[in-house]
# Entry
Amino acid sequence: MKAIIVLLLVPFVSAQTFHWGPCPSPMLQPDFELNRYIGKWYEIEKLPASFERGKCIEANYMLRPDKTIQVLNVQTYKGKVRTAEGTAVVRDIRYPAKLGVSFSYFTPYAPYWVLSTDYNSMALVYSCTDILRLFHVDYAWILSRTRTLPAETVYHAKEILSREKIDVSKMTPTDQQGCGVPV
# Structure
């Protein structure tokens, strides 16, 4: 029965990165400070994600009065600027780097874990969802406060992800060229 369920689910994750077995448990950013993380981040590289196919991808985080975080993702796809607005929350105050994010009132919060950041130039973010503990779908992002990062910084970021048992072999660079005026 499990094999049939897996076969039925595979087409839904084909544009994602999936691996057999449960999600890894990577280390999180120690002493994460949300207020320092808030602001604009540009996507430098990522694992494939069906919802991110464009260029000039950026994420903007703003703290709301109710202590939730407004998430505004922006990308240019087929010549048009497209946005997605969501909400992020700190799900457990003991683990402030383990956020949940949702882009619809009807969907549960997906993991958004900040694994590493210096707050000023680079951040590593990871998300993973187990499917019946048989396999997992994961996402990883290398983010920057600027549209580019030096190659050695990207290399170091991938080393950190790899040490945490996150497969970076399918990571692809995000096109940040010709982006015009930032949103």
